[in-house]
Input
Amino acid sequence: MAHRYPEAIDTGPSGSSTRLALLMWGVLILAQLSLTTPTPWGQRIVPTATLLLAGLLTWGTARTVRLGFEELLAAPLMRALMIAALGSVIVGLVQVFMPSWADGNIVAYPTTPGRAIGNVRQPNQLSTLLLWGSVALLWWGVVQRWASGWIAALLVLTLFSVVLTASRTGTVGVVMLSLWGLIDRRWPRTVRWLLIAALPIYLLGWWGMEHWAAISGDAFYGNDQVNKTLHGDPSSSRGKIWSNTLAMIAAHPWAGTGAGAFNFVWTMTPFPDRPVAFFDHSHNLPLQLAAEFGIPMALLILGLLGSALWQARSALFHSDDTIARSARTALFMLALVGVHSMLEYPLWYIYFLLPMAVMLGWLTGLADLKTLNVSRSTPKATVTTSRKTWILQGAGALALVGTLWATYAYHAVVIIFEPSLAIGRVAPLQERIEQGQHSWLFGQHADYADVTMADQPEEVFASFERPLFHLIDTRLMMAYAQAWAGRGERDKARHIAARLKEFHNPASTEFFAPCLQAPEPASGPRPFQCDPDPGLRAQDLLVQAASRPVP
Output
């Protein structure tokens, strides 16, 4: 059982720290609902609902902490993260040392030899999960008074698994762990020394893996990461996407591109030096907010978050060691995912965003706790029947129902590409596509199949709207260019072809092959993809920008 803070009847509104955090969530929700973004409404339902749930979790966690009920939300999250991390240790060990055991169901197939990706299938995300789990087990170890040997053994396992991810983000996180141990004197001596030892343990594990790979002849991806970092690619093309994003911000400084429109605008904007991968995110949280929402809105959101954390600083220095340690734990875990967010976009995944919301509520709730006139004599029974608990219970029920409904809706588009997963009769492909297009949440996948498989994509032109705001790829760009050409708008087709050429994707070789052939006088008009780039604006390429019907 987690430590119970001094009991208190919640006699007033949330403290300033929690109010600022809730205001931040509210601004994010309003930004998602903006009428200026070209992103279809259906593709903003899930982000908006998730942000609303995150705000409720922050409020609910802060409230339960203020009432002395840390064990209702904060403590279960720490337990879950610890269990998830230890489970991921097993998955990572299988993926690296016994990859043939991976079945794709219980253990995800390893995509890179000698590298753990976990069941989240992304090594950087796995490293952050493992580091969160490392912090959680240290916190639980102190709360439950575990034997130091057990805490040390479990920490070694999670840190070694971070090694197996070969994640440079993970390396930064381990350095942060050791620095935390050096700075924070409120931890018990044994735990503090374990924190300080995190980096040496990590380096020892890396050294051991290098020698294991040399002796066994098996792969360890960490060697490739070191070589890549030392030979000119420390950021895996992030520098280029950041440069492109800054140019987009300069072009749309006040209102941004609109929520969810980053990928479309970036893809359709001339960037001769663009990275050749298809990016749907800038891989940097402040840049992403500024690119999609505009500089003023980004500053407001980040300012509210920074103010909430600043207002919560009092909890870090509380006279009660347990409260101070919990606050510092929450802040450090927020810092871990914050650093990750400077290099990628973990908070765009629900399984990182919602825990982050609980951590934020935990921290702000502890700060607000200090402002209450608490009394250890107040019985908990007086607060267990709070009328406000129905809000959290109702939100939880709605989230469960929504999840089940979304799973059902997603199945309708999955069977388009995996007909073997259909229940009962397998409908013809076109029928499956039409059924999937009725989905508000996931119809963009059905539309993608519709437009990329059409012999004459201009005949299904309206179906391009949703997939263009999911993730544009080579097939979609070729089909979209052909659709514009089929509508007689060759300038737009030429612009899209010019953008596709910037990606240098092998899948477009055949598309551009006619441009390499010597022209023949009687061969007809020159293919549009061979003509010069007209240099249009991204907004000119929206489906709604069609200037004439199909002839």
Summary: The chain has two domains: 16-384, 429-545.
